[in-house]
Amino acid sequence: MTLNQSAMVRIIDLPGIIHELRRELDERSLRLFGPVRVRLESSLGSLTLSATPGAVTFDESGEGPRAELTPAGLGSLLLGFRSSVELAKAGEIQAASPTLELLDLLFPRLNSHYWRIDHF
Question: Counting C-beta atoms within 10 Å of the first and last residue's C-beta, which end of the chain has fewer, N or C?
């Protein structure tokens, strides 16, 4: 089966979803070697993630290396549908290579489940 690379998801509250992901992000940040920052920017909103080993915080006005994402790219990244490298190849994220590596650590690609659309 061949799948297209789009997901039916739209983030409507970027700070809200990051808040809900905080425990998972805190756990994933244990793999960091020191403090890092990244600014997620999209037409749906922007915020800066600050991470140290074991703790991730965010604010809407902070600065950091930028990752510009399309709305579809943002949803795919946050929910683990595609890696940042896959999104970069598809033109759905623009960021420097170290920023992509950091995003893959905090938002790894996960196994996704697909359901065929029912046609009634």
Answer: C
